[in-house]
Amino acid sequence: MAPQFAKSIAFFFCFLATIQAKNFDQQKKPIMKLKEKMSHFRFYWHDVLGGRNPTAIRVAQAPSTNTSPTAFGAVVMIDDALTVGPEPTSELLGRAQGFYASASQQEIGFLMAMNFAFVQGKYNGSTISIMGRNPVLHEMREMPVIGGSGLFRLARGYAQARTHAFDPKTGDAVVEYNVMLMHY
Question: Is the pLDDT of residue 160 over 90?
Fold first, then answer.
């Protein structure tokens, strides 16, 4: 009698679990289809290494960095202004926050990892994430957009960088960025 009762209880719980699973499946809502958009952004990145208020600071280096012709091993944290025009007084759109590291022994080439964090307008609070190789002496460099947040959630695309101005005495640079994005 006990084995028959145990089988009946087991069957009852399996039946109950099946009913609950079917009810759960019927309660799911359809996934909303979002339309993908393509956007183009152009702005200027201001990398300031010297002066009273630097926006780029070397935070680490290898023992051989100072003797390397490419500064191999240097790591620089940034909080650089992103502006509408190349002048430092131009309208502020956001900040480039992250780091770049000298990652090449053959040429001046950086590993760039940064977020373009917008601070005003429609995109205030949204970010575009960039990570890639930047051979800074090339006229045009291209790095991938690997994601974003806010209005740029699930973004993908690329960023092209072109040096607008460079001061060899201070190391300060102004770089024009053109960013092409696919996002929702």
Answer: yes
Q: What is the DSSP letter of 162?
A: E
**How far apart are alpha carbons 18 and 60 in whole angstroms?**
59
DSSP category for residue 98: E
Q: What is the DSSP letter of 105?
A: S
Model confidence over 58-100: pLDDT tens digits?
999 999 999 999 999 999 999 999 999 999 999 999 999 999 9
DSSP code per residue over 109-154: EEEEEEEEEE-SGGGTT-EEEEEEEEETTSSSEEEEEEEEEGGGTT
* Mean pLDDT along residues 163-181: 97
Q: Which of 128, 125, 126 is nearest to 113 (CA)?
A: 128
CA distances from 67 to 42, 58, 74 (A): 36, 16, 11
Instruction: Please give the domain boundaries of the chain with CATH numbers for all domains.
Output: 37-183 (2.40.480.10)
Q: Is the pLDDT of residue 24 over 60?
A: no
CA distance 43 to 95: 11
Confirm if 145 and 156 have CB atoms less than 8 A apart. yes
